[in-house]
Amino acid sequence: MDLAWQTTRNTYEAAALNSLKIGVRPVTMRRNQSDAHDITDWNLQPASEDGRYNTSELRQSFNAGNPKGLLATETLHPYLLALRAMHNRSLLIDAQNGRSMRSIEAAPGSWILEPGHAVPSDLIGDYIETVDQDRAIALIGLGSAIIQITGPKGSHIYRLTRLSLQSKLLPTTPRADNGTWSILHRMQGVFPAHAETHFGRQLHALHCLRELRKNQYTSRFIIINHRTPFHKGAAVNEKASSEDKARVQRVLGKKIE
To answer: How confident is the model at residue 65 (pLDDT cuts 50, 70, 90)?
Structure first.
């Protein structure tokens, strides 16, 4: 078992791993104080707190976005469910900007968005409306198709099919009624009772994403790329005292901007 800490700059990957109780710590860097662009390295714990998941194994099993090994056979693995929620979040934002999206089945009962024609009108039937983006993403993951997105930026209304699309991987399985999950979420009844369901896993992963982003800039380091005979540069906490910054400047012979 690989027990070394790893790093990623993919915030979606970090959030998906964090949803499995794998610890994530941010190190956010900026080239200089006047630069508006930050780079965050997410440091990943070697394994989950409960010992169920190994970080290296999961990452290697999803190398370059193609499930292999463990994830090739466990197509509904919690890590894959979390990653699909991240994928659907990204494409739902595209849909909010007017791009047409359709749903395809990535695994039995697990759906992802891709650019394409929207759901045919004869499959719409009853629908669900919600202003909660996380709820919409989780319902899309269960097979509810996007009918329409209305409202201004920041106040979108998502209209989705109440019934899931018909599974092609399990063609004899009836279309699921996702209205039950929508009501349960609205009534705050998903957690903890349904935390390990497909719906609950997606919601938790999206929550982890928000938490990571909220704490991403609690500590930012200024990167100084300046070589001397004895040093390759330095990383200085932007909240460091003026004395500490002056000490680094003296050692490197370069002003911290």
So the answer is: confident
Segments forming the whole domain that contains residue 236: 225-252
Is 175 inside a domain boundary? Answer: yes
Per the DSSP assignment, residues forming a β-bridge with 92 are: none
For residue 157, being part of any structural domain is answered with: yes
Does residue 181 carry a pLDDT above 70?
yes
The answer on 34 and 152 residing in a single domain is yes
Residues 207 and 230 reside in one and the same domain:
no
- Asked, for residue 1, whether it belongs to a domain, the answer is no
> What's the full length of the chain, in residues?
257
Distances (CA, A) of 171 to 102, 108, 109, 116, 163: 19, 10, 11, 22, 15
Of the candidates 88, 58, 77, 112, which has an alpha carbon nearest to the alpha carbon of residue 206?
88
> Does residue 43 belong to any structural domain of this protein?
yes
The answer to whether residue 33 scores a pLDDT higher than 90 is: no
Strands, sheet with 146-150, edge to edge from the N-terminal-most edge strand = 127-130, 157-161, 146-150
Instruction: Count up the domains in the chain and report the number.
Output: 2
How distant, in Å, are the alpha carbons of 63, 84, 108, 163, 207 from that of 13? Answer: 11, 11, 22, 30, 13
Same domain, 178 and 239: no
Same domain for 110 and 68 = yes
Shared domain for 233 and 118, answered yes or no, is no
Model pLDDT, residue 64: 72
Query: How does 38-50 read in b/e, with b if 16+ C-beta sit within 10 Å?
Result: eebebebbebbee
